[in-house]
User: Which sequence fits this backbone?
């Protein structure tokens, strides 16, 4: 999607928030009806029946009739599509939309094409029941049949046009690159380049810590707490913008320079999952330490470096040219002689092979193995997991 920053007036902001409330209300009402399904109760109302009920509700309630019927009906269509995607197994179960967290609505059809360019830097879009709203032209506006208006936690309004840009053509040079993702170094390339995702500066991190301490002392529901939460959201939004900008530039550069891009096949959802509590058998109701604090720090590092977003954008821009490699033992295998041993990893940053003496950056060594496509079954020495009763065995290459 092509996203642009909107600059509505205070009156338009109030009208946009009202549209968001109506779309959220209709979505949650449809979700409530769908959740009431029982095995003996029969089917719940579908989109057609819910659209008829929406017409009756608009005739009965003036506050609902004051909103745009296009926005409210589209919320029902979006929910119906979400249910279809859930039953198809491609998406998660639809959840409740909350105020302040899910602020947005979608416009589809001829009304989505009412966009005019005001100048070289500004354009405007006609939003139903709101009027002409300005947005900044950071790039050319694509031709789209729908757009989505959203408001983030920092209070910024954005408009995203549903248009899929064409993929970047391959340079046809035969170059293959491996990308090793890490926490200290965001992305290490097999060419020796070390890329780091920019985050908050030290001063901004100190400011964030002060705001979090101040938030802990605020009374719930107070205006002071609301202002502090808005300040924290602005800092997080600033870090997110920098991360997305870095991902877009890095993915575009890789898609333009290399024909094949090989990355680790990582299951990020399982890697960033919160550790389960460990009950203490000696103390009923007590729990053993599960290193939750250390795991939370690792999760923040993984998510803050944009591991998943980088691969996702690579697959969009270099369609069909991204290959996922088994990451097992790529950081312990020497990229020169192929010897695999835990002792090769001298520390987090230095790799020194105990067999041939090859010394290099650990992340670059892993990226070279990824570029070569060296999975577990393609190494000279493959560690085999054995039970305690069996002797260790080593597989040899054919």
Assistant:
């Amino acid at each position: 999607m092509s996203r642009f920053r909107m600059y509505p007036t205070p009156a338009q902001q109030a009208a946009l928030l009202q549209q968001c409330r109506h779309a959220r209300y209709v979505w949650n009402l449809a979700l409530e009806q769908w959740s009431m399904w029982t095995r003996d109760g029969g089917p719940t109302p579908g989109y057609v029946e819910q659209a008829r009920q929406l017409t009756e509700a608009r005739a009965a309630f003036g506050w609902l009739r004051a909103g745009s019927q296009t926005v409210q009906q589209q919320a029902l269509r979006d929910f119906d599509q979400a249910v279809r995607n859930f039953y198809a197994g491609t998406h998660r179960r639809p959840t409740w939309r909350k105020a302040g967290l899910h602020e947005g609505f979608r416009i589809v059809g001829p009304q989505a094409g009412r966009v005019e360019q005001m100048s070289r830097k500004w354009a405007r879009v006609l939003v139903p029941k709101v009027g002409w709203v300005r947005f900044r032209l950071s790039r050319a506006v694509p031709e789209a049949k729908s757009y989505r208006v959203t408001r983030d936690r920092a209070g910024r309004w954005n408009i995203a046009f549903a248009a899929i840009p064409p993929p970047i053509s391959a340079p046809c040079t035969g170059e293959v690159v491996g990308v090793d993702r890490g926490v200290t170094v965001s992305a290490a390339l097999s060419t020796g380049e070390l890329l780091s995702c920019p985050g908050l500066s030290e001063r901004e991190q100190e400011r964030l810590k002060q705001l979090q301490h101040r938030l802990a002392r605020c009374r719930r529901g107070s205006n002071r707490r609301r202002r502090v939460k808005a300040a924290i959201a602005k800092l997080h939004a600033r870090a997110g913008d920098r991360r997305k900008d870095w991902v877009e530039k890095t993915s575009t550069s890789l898609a333009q320079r290399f024909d094949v891009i090989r990355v680790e096949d990582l299951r990020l959802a399982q890697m960033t999952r919160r550790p389960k509590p460990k009950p203490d058998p000696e103390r009923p109701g007590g729990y053993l330490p599960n290193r939750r604090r250390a795991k939370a720090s690792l999760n923040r590092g993984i998510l803050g470096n944009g591991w998943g977003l980088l691969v996702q954008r690579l697959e969009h821009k270099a369609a069909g040219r991204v290959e996922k490699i088994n990451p097992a033992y790529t950081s312990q295998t020497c990229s020169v002689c192929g010897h695999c041993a835990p002792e090769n990893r001298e520390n987090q940053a230095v790799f020194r092979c105990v067999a041939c003496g090859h010394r290099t950056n650990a992340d670059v060594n892993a990226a070279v193995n990824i570029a070569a496509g060296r999975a577990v079954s393609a190494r000279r020495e493959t560690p085999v997991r054995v039970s305690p009763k069996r002797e260790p065995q080593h597989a040899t290459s054919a």
Summary: The first helix runs from residue 10 to 35. Residues 176-278+301-325 form one domain. The longest strand covers residues 103-108.
